[in-house]
Amino acid sequence: MTTVPGTADAVVVGGGTIGAWTAWFLQSSGIGNVVLVERDTLGHGASSRAAGMVRAQGGTEAAVRLGLFSRDFYAGQQDLLGIDSGFVAQGYFMPCFSDAEVEQAHERIAMQQRVGLDVRWASSDEMDEMNPAMAPGQTLGASYAPGDGYIDPPRNVLAYTAALFTAGVRVCERTTFTGLVVEGGHVTGVRTSSGDISTPRVVLTGGPTLAAVGEAAGVRIPAGAARHQVVVTEPHPDFGPERLPMVFDLPSGIYWRPCEGGVLWGMSNPEEPPGEAAEFDTAYFEVMRARMAALVPTTGKVGLRKSWAATIDFTPDHLPILGPALRAEGPIEGTVVAAAGGHGMMWGPGIAKAASDLAVAGATDVVDVTDLGLDRFDESGHSRLAPDPIALPFPASTR
User: Fold this and answer.
1) Is the dihedral of CA 317, 319, 359, 82 positive or negative?
2) pLDDT of amino acid 187
3) Is the four-CA dihedral 126, 128, 132, 133 of positive or negative sign?
4) For residues 166 and 377, what is the distance between their CA atoms, to the nearest angstrom?
5) What domains can you pick out in the chain, each with its CATH number?
């Protein structure tokens, strides 16, 4: 049985990308003793099964800022930690297939450039020239960010595991969070399956299980879970990295990147009811495979090397959650709820740094969190904010 310490200066719930990097940022801030509790083992959930896409081409300023921070963090890990998550700046296209999409892309590019992202418009001819694996003449052009790329998810788990233990974070695996201890509106501890920990700071993460974490804490968190599927094709000369920049086909929700000489591509079914699922849906894959073959013809001529499904999280507005836990009587001082809404690899370090800042200082300069707290959701889980338009096709509701 895992033994937990009786006291801590901060406790982080969850050992995925967000929770682990949050614990590391907290320990690096110098506040003292940081404890991470994880019901399974580090990286057991979606973190080790993700596709590793890292882009700053978000549809809102918050998404761009979180993407930029995370991308820069991944790119600088080797110098910072002596180990990295395998980041490759592959370049990322977001193609347009209609005049309306072209107009939206130009507006989005202008916003992204104002925030500081190196992004530009690429004509249809230029996209064809830079994407020789893709069928020509398919698009009306695309937005393009050369610095966007991808990481190796298992290596990311290795990197944050090494970082946690090197920094001195106390990691308590196979330890289930069972509740908060609150006195006078301020958190004073956490309850776990291995005992209580007295602490003035708690960060709640959990990815697809965040709603359950909130329920244990007596807090309603409108974060859902959805099946996401990823495949990797057999190798082929058409799929050399120099021929295959990253692409996100937003209308279908398909994205792809190079992987082991083949193509890694992923998809989610927005018609599927939300909930945890790890079985591969062959019927939906075959529907999406036809679309993928129309875009990248060689994918229809080769077999698969790997296929898997994983449960990922989402929020109703596809935006992150960063703010205190809320009960009917008000916020619980000393707590932070942190969620990436299905973008754990993409926004993970940015979310983690912001959560750490909020826990230590009550403010952060990573992103404006004014509208990102739980108070933006009504009793039914509906958000007052417009959703981020650049997201996977998640279900419309967490229910």
Assistant:
1) positive
2) 98
3) positive
4) 38
5) 1-88+147-222+315-399 (3.50.50.60), 89-146+225-314 (3.30.9.10)
